Please model this.
Amino acid sequence: MGLLSLAIWTPIAFGLVLLALGRDDQARAVRWLALVGALVSFLVTLPLYSQFDTTSAAMQFVENSPWIDRFNVKYHLGVDGISLWFVLLTAFINVVVVIAGWEVITRRVNQYMASFLILSGLMIGVFSTLDGLLFYVFFEATLIPMYLIIGIWGGPNKIYAAFKFFLYTLLGSLLMLIALIFLYTKSGGSFDLATWHAMRLDGRSQTLLFFAFFAAFAVKVPMWPVHTWLPDVHVEAPTGGSAVLAAIMLKLGAYGFLRFSLPIAPDAAHEWAWLMIALSLIAVVYVGLVALVQQDMKKLVAYSSVAHMGFVTLGFFIFLDLGVSGGLVQMIAHGFVSGAMFLSIGVLYDRVHSREIASYGGVVNTMPKFAAFALFFAMANCGLPGTAGFVGEWMVILASVKFNFWIGFAAASALIFGAAYTLWMFKRVYLGPVTNDDVKGLSDIDGREFLMLALLAAAVLWMGVYPKPFTDVMDASVAQLLKHVAISKLN
Amino acid sequence: MIDKISWIAVFPDMVLLAMACVIALLDLGVKSSMRGKTYVLTLLTLAVVAYLQADLALSGKTLYAFGNMVVSDAMGNWLKCFATIAVMVTLVYGRPYAAHRGMLRGGELFTLSIFALLGMSVMISGNNLLVIYMGLELLTLSSYALVALRRDNATATEAAMKYFVLGAMASGFLLYGMSMLYGATGSLDITTMLKAISSGQIRHQVLVFGLVFVVAGLAFKLGAVPFHMWIPDVYQGAPTAITLMIGGAPKLAAFAMTMRLLVEGLLPLALDWQQMLLMLSVGSLLIGNLAAIAQTNVKRMLAFSTISQMGFVLLGVMSGVVTGDSATFTANAYSSAMFYVITYVLTTLASFGILLLLSQEGFESEEIADLAGLNQRSPLYAGVMAVCLLSLAGIPPLVGFYAKLAVLQALVASGQALHLSIAVFAVLMSLVGAFYYLRVIKVMYFDDPITASSVVAPLDVRVVLCINGGLVLVLGLLPGGLLALCGNAIRQMLGT
Model:
């Protein structure tokens, strides 16, 4: 069994064991087993990084065996510089989320933990598959645990959110399924990604394919104007669900653009790049403004996610090394930062049971340690130099200035909105005098919460100060991808 | 003089017939309220028959018996084998339910089920219009009686009446169509009929006229729109165990009948029947999915869901390419439909199994609300039900996804622009479908239970239900074997 298979199936196996054996009267044992499972799953992904050859753009740790002969589907796994970090990120966030749900979840603990473990295995599968159908299977299967997570452990309006999440994203993916079948037929019976990348395609097919993939991935990212499911879902999802959704699940969409849309339909991607850039800029600027007026902290962070993901898609569609790498770095950074933001909100919510900004004020007086973390993550969310949030945005802005000054200008100006909504929220929630009895009665974070936030803070700081390990891994693969995309597939 | 080959070909059916009589007689001496002895003997018989059929199927030979009246090929034998297993599973799930409702005062449930199965077998292996019709009648007459088995229950009796009247009319349609074909071709034998039609000597109008009636009859049996009206009423009205008996295994037989008549017999008219099937399947997908949303009764919802699923099966049957060098495409199309039917029956068995399990003595679990909070009462059964519903919705990694994928792939591979848009339509309709399946999952997982009582089940039901639910998941992870089985069976039938 290869390393990638281990990375995928270890958490799923632990999840199934939890489902089979776990009972609520042994919640303690269930939690520990889940933590062991998450840690083991994370540890098995580490050799992927240490043994990764950064000089090569080729797929590494490849596993290839027949799976369904009838469709010529292969169990074909491999990672390159584009996907490697997401495998590690997913496994890492999973550990944090298990810690985050420790005492908060008291009902059906085993199902909760199992859902996250299985979900993490499936998402690693999405990032590491090289076969179109296998990708689709993993991509769709992630909906099931997330649906249950939102629906069982979510807030008051959880059912609406769970359905909206499932059906909205399913609509997009079903169109992608047709695109995959179309490619399968067109390529003479292959679901192999490399074959699809190399295949010639006429302009009309490319346009259709591009938009079919767009339907799936733009909803997932989410790009403006199909982002409306995200705020609703984030608000109702439990803290852990929000964190995984923002940190990893959104990246599935952006990753799909790089793996499918760009290399399979390069001409259509170039032709429609203006549209993608326009939608990204709207996301960055307009959604940033929308975030400014939110009353609900989770909604605010959700809109901020849409704006940050706008930087990612902007970076991808200007077709420059710096832009694509910047987008990827931004994705990883956003994984850490948005996860941390949602977990911070969760810390407050567990104590006060309100997400309204107006319910708080002066939290720093009663929870100084927590406020320090929150300030750090808020700064990272604004893109302060020295934090993870800065690197990616800076790279994307540089690339877009190179591409077109005014696009770069618009993107850069969005940083101001980012700083405005994040810091304004911080001011209203944490600073000033204690406003009410709820806040007065708050107790500072305990060791578990400290550990979970510290892990993320360390990651954010490391990436902000020394991003080289991240960009080094990507360089070769990104260059290779852009070289491929630059060549027309017409004629 | 009957030759040896003939006996080999029909040996399992003979066993079935003989044992049906033996069981009917032996049952006279059984007194117990659960009819344990009859039950065990029936299951043993079915197990042996399933084994014999699988053995015949694995031999991979095509045998014609009794002067070409009966054919024994891999497709038929596998379908018979799966139908036998499906009836077995139905009896396991249905026995406690039937016992609580006084349906086991006599042993008719078992005998009639075996006769229904015999009817399916004859239908599946018939190579002659009249043999197929005879099998169909044996199946449907047994089914009418089964629906009416709970004779003191008004809804069941009403359902039986509706089923009988409409079923008789559909049989009439089919028989009328068959007589037209017989009149035009001069033969009841399917192989001869095919040759006569292929010769091009016969007037097209007459053939198409007969074809319309045949297709209408088939559509009724499969439950495709606009011949679907009986399905919701009968599914809802019949005792749940019997609903499963008529909604499970007979779909396999109906599929086989469709293949025998349309593909083996009337392939030269494919351009005509493909258009008819296209209309039927589009209608079924539309009406089935939209009407299912409005249902509050699970059985009725599953009935409409069946209608939409049959739409997919028909899409598979109609996407076979008939001209040019396209043997692989055609085999893929038919085998996708076969795979679809088999997995559909597998999933239906488990989902009705759960409903039967929840219907305790004096309580019918029929409303969607009755499933509320099942996850808190029994995570295992909620899990099985969720897996089945997600499979019906076509969400990977469950087996229903590959069924839909196979059909869609066959549709797209036929290379017509119309078919591509039908594929888009079909996936949009399965999005609608996902909504009502998810709603049941929502009730099971997100709502609080109305009763805290735990779910109890006899050991046999528990074991079979776990295996059944597990198969839906395992076949989802490793669907290759069953897909290959269907592909080989169909290729052998097409003679390529």
About this structure: The radius of gyration of chain B is 21 Å. Chain B touches chain A at residues 332, 375-376, 379, 383, 390, 395-397, 401-402, 405-406, 408-409, 412-413, 415, 420, 423-424, 427-428, 430-431, 434-435, 438, 441-442, 445-446, 478-480, 483-484, 487 (CB under 8 Å).
